[in-house]
């Protein structure tokens, strides 16, 4: 049977860090640098929490470089499910689906899961930027780079540099 | 470990049949009777598909009798996840969460999953009205009565008459 791969949205497809920097600049005039965000969860910034509750934040987020090509690559080889933590921010639900439909039109509504916790979603491979999600996952773990996870250690996890590396992985050797 | 129970929303918590009858009457003046709906999926009625795409349909759906008490009962004994097919009708996502928050305030955002397909959601027990969902489920299957499933046969499935019976089940004997 085709392997099932769970792909995270924020920080893997949607560039929420860049969006945070955009919002902070527009709202306060302060230009944050990625280095200031390193090692910290995006949710540790109070202004981040405010912004994600603002209508439009998820709907207008930039797309992570090479993710359209990369997800298309995976979608032709695996059963892809987009699994996104969304119910904490209710207005994000409809925005996230509209955003996916716009940027990844080859992903169908059958392939989308919006949840609170990812612990109960079954899959063979997970691509995520959050150690809390990867740590719970039984299967091949792939960590996508984001400033908050630079120093994170997750057992039995492949750390990639981005979507180009995901496309160059030896997928025949990635086991569940 | 606490058993995990997946509870469907439409047809188990939300009375979408009554809502359909309400909408049909308001829109066409025709009063449908439950008997006319028997044995047919609600989605086989073209007007049903139109109504579920109308803003407000899910947000104002009536609550299934005894479901508040019943879900509260389960929530004190199991790890409850509300699993709802929602991504086919994008505007339903935010409406469904607001509806849950209003009528079932003891269910947290961590306990909600809005998806396209339920096949990849892990659990020990599933309460659902749709045979297509129960048939895929590995674990104890409980069918909730709705006009469309009166004659449906699902293997290894307990058919209940409603929430009162769910509360009176011998849960010690319900195995995963």
What secondary-structure arrangement, pairings included, does this model have?
The structure is a homodimer.
Chain A (H helix, E strand, L loop, with lengths): L3 E4 L8 H13 L5 H4 L8 H7 L14 H9 L3 E7 L6 H12 L8 E4 L9 E4 L2 H6 L3 E4 L13 E3 L3 H6 L8
Parallel strand pairs in A: 1-2, 1-4, 2-3, 4-5, 5-6
How would you characterize the overall build of this protein?
Two copies of one chain form a homodimer. Chain A is an alpha/beta fold. Chain A has helices at residues 16-28, 34-37, 46-52, 67-75, 92-103, 131-136, 163-168, and strands at residues 4-7, 79-85, 112-115, 125-128, 140-143, 157-159. Chain A has a six-stranded parallel beta sheet with strand order 3-2-1-4-5-6. The radius of gyration of chain A is 16 Å and the shape is globular. The two termini of chain A are 12 Å apart. Chain A binds chain B through residues 4, 81, 86-88, 90-91, 93-94, 97-98, 101, 108-117, 120-123, and chain B through 4, 81, 86-88, 90-91, 93-94, 97-98, 101, 108-117, 120-123.
């Amino acid at each position: 049977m085709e392997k099932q791969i769970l792909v995270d949205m924020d920080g893997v497809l949607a560039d929420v860090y860049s969006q945070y920097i955009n919002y902070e600049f527009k709202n306060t005039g302060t230009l944050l640098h990625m280095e200031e965000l390193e090692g910290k969860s995006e949710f540790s910034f109070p202004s981040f929490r405010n912004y994600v509750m603002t209508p439009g934040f998820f709907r207008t987020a930039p797309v992570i470089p090479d993710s359209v090509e990369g997800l298309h690559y995976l979608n032709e080889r695996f059963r892809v499910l987009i699994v996104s933590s969304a119910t904490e921010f209710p207005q994000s639900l409809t925005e996230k689906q509209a955003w996916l439909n716009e940027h990844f039109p080859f992903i169908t509504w059958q392939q989308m899961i919006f949840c609170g916790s990812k612990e109960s979603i079954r899959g063979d491979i997970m691509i995520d930027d959050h150690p809390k999600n990867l740590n719970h996952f039984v299967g091949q773990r792939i960590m996508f780079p984001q400033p908050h996870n630079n120093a994170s250690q997750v057992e039995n996890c492949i750390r990639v540099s981005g979507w180009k590396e995901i496309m160059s992985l030896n997928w025949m050797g990635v086991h569940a």
